[in-house]
Design a protein that fits this description.
Blueprint lengths: L18 E9 L3 E10 L4 E5 L6 H8 L7 E6 L7 E4 L11 H12 L6 H15 L15 H15 L3 E5 L7 H16 L3 E5 L3 H7 L2 E6 L2 E6 H6 L3 H4 L9
Parallel strand pairs: 3-7, 3-8, 5-6, 6-7
Antiparallel strand pairs: 1-2, 1-4, 8-9
Helix pairs in contact: 2-3, 2-4, 3-4, 4-5
C-alpha cells in the first residue's frame, strides 16, 4: 500500500473520528512498529506507552506529518486551521521570544489575524497565562525560564490554540508535583472545551490522571486497551512505566 500523507477534514458528524490510522508502519531506516490500525474520537485521551526507543515519539511525529509513514494511511479529520496541536518532547518554543509571544502563536494558529480576531486572541492568551500561573512572566524571554516554567508555557500555547486533537510528547516529565497539578488542571480545561489528546507517557500516575484509553507499543505492534482493561492487567515493567514519577 502506498503511504498516504495527512488528509485534512472540515465539518464532521458527531461520531466521526478525529484520526484514523490504517495498517500503518512507522520508523526511519527500519520499521519500529507495523500493522497499526486505530482511531480516536472526540473526548478521548489516549496514553501511548512502551519502553524507550520502541517508537512512541515516532508514532506521534508520523501523526503530526513530521515523519513520512513507511506504509499505510494517516487520516486527520480536523480543521486545517488550528485543529491539530502539538507539544513536542523538546517543547518547540521560540527561545529568544517572550512568553506572551510563544503563547500567542497558539492563538494565532486557530484564530484569523485579520477580521476582528485580535481581541479574541488576547483573551485566549491572557486566560491561558492565568490558568498556568505564568501571567507575571509575559515579557520574559523563554530562554531564562526553568524547565517546569517552559512546560507551562508550552501547555499555555496549546490552551490558547484550543485544538480538536492535541499530540503531547512527555509533556508532564521533569515537573514537580505542584507543577503537574497546575498543568493537569489546564489540560482539563482543554478537555472540557472538547479537545482530545494523544499523550506519550512514562509514569503510571499520570496515565491514571487523564487517560481514557491506552496504546501500548510492544514487539513492533500496537495494542489498544480501555483504561479499565489496562488497570486490570497493568505491568509497569512490561510496558516500560515508572510506578511513581521521580520528578526534578
Amino acid at each position: 500500500m502506498e503511504p498516504l500523507r495527512i488528509n485534512w477534514g472540515g465539518y464532521m458528524e458527531q461520531d466521526t473520528p478525529l484520526l484514523v490510522l490504517e495498517n500503518l508502519s512507522i520508523g526511519y531506516n527500519a520499521v519500529l512498529a507495523s500493522g497499526i490500525s486505530a482511531s480516536i474520537h472526540a473526548g478521548e485521551v489516549i496514553a501511548v506507552l512502551g519502553p524507550s526507543g520502541i517508537g512512541k515519539t515516532t508514532l506521534v511525529r508520523t501523526i503530526a506529518g513530521l515523519v513520512e509513514p513507511i506504509d499505510g494511511r494517516v487520516e486527520l479529520l480536523v480543521d486545517k486551521r488550528g485543529g491539530l496541536g502539538y507539544i513536542p518532547q523538546k517543547l518547540g518554543l521560540v527561545r529568544h521570544a517572550s512568553v506572551y509571544h510563544n503563547v500567542n502563536l497558539g492563538a494565532r494558529a486557530s484564530l484569523p489575524v485579520l477580521k476582528g480576531g485580535s481581541d479574541e486572541r488576547k483573551k485566549r492568551v491572557n486566560s491561558a497565562l492565568s490558568a498556568l500561573g505564568i501571567e507575571e512572566k509575559t515579557t520574559e524571554p523563554v530562554r531564562r525560564l526553568s524547565g517546569g516554567q517552559l512546560r507551562r508555557v508550552a501547555t499555555a500555547r496549546a490552551l490558547a490554540q484550543r485544538p480538536s486533537l492535541l499530540l503531547a510528547d512527555e509533556f508532564l516529565s521533569e515537573l514537580d508535583h505542584n507543577t503537574v497539578d497546575v498543568v493537569i488542571a489546564a489540560v482539563k480545561e482543554l478537555l472540557d472545551a472538547g479537545t482530545s489528546i494523544i499523550m506519550v507517557e512514562h509514569h503510571e500516575e499520570n496515565v491514571t490522571l487523564l487517560a481514557t484509553r491506552v496504546w501500548i507499543i510492544e514487539g513492533e505492534k500496537l495494542y489498544d486497551f480501555s483504561i479499565d482493561e489496562w488497570k486490570s492487567n497493568n505491568s509497569p515493567v512490561q510496558v516500560g512505566l515508572s510506578p511513581g514519577g521521580e520528578e526534578e
